[in-house]
C-alpha cells in the first residue's frame, strides 16, 4: 500500500461520500422522469431488482478492484493484470465519465441557476407558470452555457484542491439533511388532493406497459444511479483502509440509493397527478414539480432555496467523482500538476458540454438517430457505456482476477458466512454478464 496516499478517515465518511457520488442526479433528477416515461411501478420494480441482483455485486467488485490495487481506474487494471489488454476497462471508464460529465454538467447548471433564482424569491410567485419558467431558462443559449460554465468551474476549483477531506466532512452533514428535507417534501406531496393516483402510478406495477426497451432503460438507470460501470467507485475505494467491510459498504450505498429513489418518486408523482401535469414530461419534470409543492407550504420560498442548495450539493458530489476519475488518471504518478490537469479536463468538459446545453434552444432540431445531442449523450452513457463497462468488469472479476485475492478483499473487516463470497462470485461470473447481454440483445431486436 502507498503510505502517502490520501485515505478516508472513517467508514461512515466513505459510505456517505460513495452514496453522494452515486445519488446525485441519478436518483433525484433522472429517476422520476425515467420512471414516468417508462411505465411507472413496473419500471420501479425492475430498477430495484437490477440494483440488488446486478448493481450491488458490481459495486462490491469495483470496491475490490480499487482497494486491492490502491490505484485510480486505468492504473488499477494495469497493476492487477499487467501486460494484458484489460486496462482498456479503465480507459473505457475515463471516456465514459468524460461524456457523462459533459451532459451532466448541463443539468448541474440548471440546478445551480435555479438555486440562485430561488434566493431572492424569483421562482415561487402568484399565478406562476412553472413549465414556462423552465422552458424560458433552458431556451436561452446564453443562460444555459453560463450555468454549464459556472458548474464546471466549481468542479475545477474543488478537485484541483483535492476532494477527499472536504467532501467527506461535508457529506456527513449535508447528506442526512437532504434525506430529512426529502421526507418533509414527501409528507406534503402525498397530502395533496388527487395524490393517491400518483402513488398508484409509482408503486402499482403494470407489466403490460413494459417492453424490451423499457427493460434496458431500467438496467441503465440501476447502473447510472449507483455510478457503476465507469470505474468511479474503483477510484473512490482506492482511498479505503483494509478494516472496512466492502460488502457492507456496498449494501449501505445500494439501500440508500433505492431509498432516495423511493423518496424522489413519492415526492414527485403525487404532485404530478394532483396538478394535472404529465408524468412523461422528461428532463424538466423535477424543476416543474418542486416549485408547485413548495408554493403550497408555509415559508415555501425559504424551503425551496434550502432544498435546491442541498440538491446542488448532491449533484456536485457526483460530478466531483467524475472529474476526479479523469484527473486521477493523469496524475497517478505525480508527474503532472493536479491543478493543471483538473483545469484542462474541466475546460474540455465545458467545451464538450456546449452542444448538450444548446440542445434545448439553438440545436433543438439537430438530431443524432432522432435524438438531440443531450439525449444522445445520455443514451450512449446510460444504455451502452455503463452496461458495457459493467459487462467488462464482471468478466474481469469472474475470469481474470485471482480468486484468492477476491476472497481476501471480500472478507476484510467482516465476519460474513464463507458461502456468501461464493454466491457473489458466481453472480459476477455468470448472472451479471449473461443478464446484461440478454437485455441488450433483446433491446436491439436480436433476441
UniProtKB/TrEMBL annotation:
The keyword Transcription regulation does not apply. One of its GO terms (cellular component) is membrane. CDD domains: SLC6sbd_Tyt1-Like. It comes from the Bacteria. This is Transporter. It is found in: Membrane. PROSITE patterns: NA_NEUROTRAN_SYMP_1, NA_NEUROTRAN_SYMP_3. It is a multi-pass membrane protein. It comes from Oceanobacillus polygoni. One of its GO terms (molecular function) is symporter activity. Belongs to the sodium:neurotransmitter symporter (SNF) (TC 2.A.22) family. The chain crosses the membrane at residues 12-31, 43-65, 86-113, 133-161, 173-195, 215-236, 248-277, 302-329, 341-359, 379-399, 420-441. The keyword Transmembrane helix applies. Keywords: Membrane, Symport, Transmembrane, Transmembrane helix, Transport.
